[in-house]
């Protein structure tokens, strides 16, 4: 990995701060349980990845979750939700980045965002079933859910929620990307960062 330039470090810091603020502006989606919140904090991470490379996007995801954990804490005492958010963000931005970088068109960005949405939704469903839900019940000292109960929650709430969240982020990002793509591509062409 190449050393980070000052420009990349400043950009990652700024985008991490914006991402953290967007994470605080979360809101529930009525048909889903209240612990599932929509936020647009993956957008700055995606911008960081497009400008400075995929490691920068991962760093933005990491920094925003560390900031949120230390500023707001966690109901479990351990950052189960923050780790889940970090993994979900990576699963969303990396496929998007690699699909877009292959062709560098608006269509490839849209395709990348949709692929990223479905990869994130499916893998997060599997992780919720096997790791995240059991971790929550363990750390919250709740009675463990049976496999059919967890499966029901994953299929009826987690999977559709993540698909809707990814599609909402796709919509908002494409509105921004339509205006910002020349600037993003220009910034990315100067990168010697990561």
Automatic annotation (TrEMBL):
<keyword id="KW-0813">Transport</keyword>
<dbReference type="GO" id="GO:0032217">
    <property type="term" value="F:riboflavin transmembrane transporter activity"/>
</dbReference>
<keyword id="KW-1003">Cell membrane</keyword>
<keyword id="KW-1133">Transmembrane helix</keyword>
<feature type="transmembrane region" description="Helical">
    <location>
        <begin position="153"/>
        <end position="177"/>
    </location>
</feature>
<comment type="similarity">
    <text>Belongs to the prokaryotic riboflavin transporter (P-RFT) (TC 2.A.87) family.</text>
</comment>
<keyword id="KW-0812">Transmembrane</keyword>
<dbReference type="InterPro" id="IPR025720">
    <property type="entry name" value="RibU"/>
</dbReference>
<protein>
    <recommendedName>
        <fullName>Riboflavin transporter</fullName>
    </recommendedName>
</protein>
<dbReference type="Pfam" id="PF12822">
    <property type="entry name" value="ECF_trnsprt"/>
</dbReference>
<feature type="transmembrane region" description="Helical">
    <location>
        <begin position="6"/>
        <end position="25"/>
    </location>
</feature>
<dbReference type="InterPro" id="IPR024529">
    <property type="entry name" value="ECF_trnsprt_substrate-spec"/>
</dbReference>
<feature type="transmembrane region" description="Helical">
    <location>
        <begin position="83"/>
        <end position="100"/>
    </location>
</feature>
<dbReference type="GO" id="GO:0005886">
    <property type="term" value="C:plasma membrane"/>
</dbReference>
<keyword id="KW-0472">Membrane</keyword>
<feature type="transmembrane region" description="Helical">
    <location>
        <begin position="112"/>
        <end position="133"/>
    </location>
</feature>
<feature type="transmembrane region" description="Helical">
    <location>
        <begin position="45"/>
        <end position="63"/>
    </location>
</feature>
<comment type="function">
    <text>Probably a riboflavin-binding protein that interacts with the energy-coupling factor (ECF) ABC-transporter complex.</text>
</comment>
């Amino acid at each position: 990995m190449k050393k980070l330039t000052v420009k990349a470090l400043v950009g990652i810091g700024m985008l991490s701060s914006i991402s953290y603020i967007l994470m605080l502006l979360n809101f529930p989606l009525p048909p889903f349980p209240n612990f599932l919140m929509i936020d647009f904090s993956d957008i700055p991470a995606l911008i960081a990845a497009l400008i400075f490379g995929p490691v920068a996007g991962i760093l933005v995801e990491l920094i925003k979750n560390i900031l949120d954990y230390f500023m707001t804490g966690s109901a479990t005492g351990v950052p189960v939700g923050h780790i889940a958010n970090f993994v979900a963000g990576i699963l969303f931005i990396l496929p998007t980045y690699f699909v877009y970088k292959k062709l560098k068109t608006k269509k490839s960005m849209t395709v990348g965002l949709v692929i990223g949405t479905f990869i994130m939704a499916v893998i997060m469903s599997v992780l919720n079933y096997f790791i995240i839900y059991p971790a929550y019940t363990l750390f919250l000292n709740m009675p463990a859910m049976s496999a059919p109960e967890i499966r029901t929650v994953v299929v009826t709430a987690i999977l559709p929620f993540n698909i809707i969240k990814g599609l909402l982020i796709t919509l908002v990002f494409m509105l921004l990307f339509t205006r910002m793509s020349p600037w993003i591509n220009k910034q990315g062409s100067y990168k010697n960062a990561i």
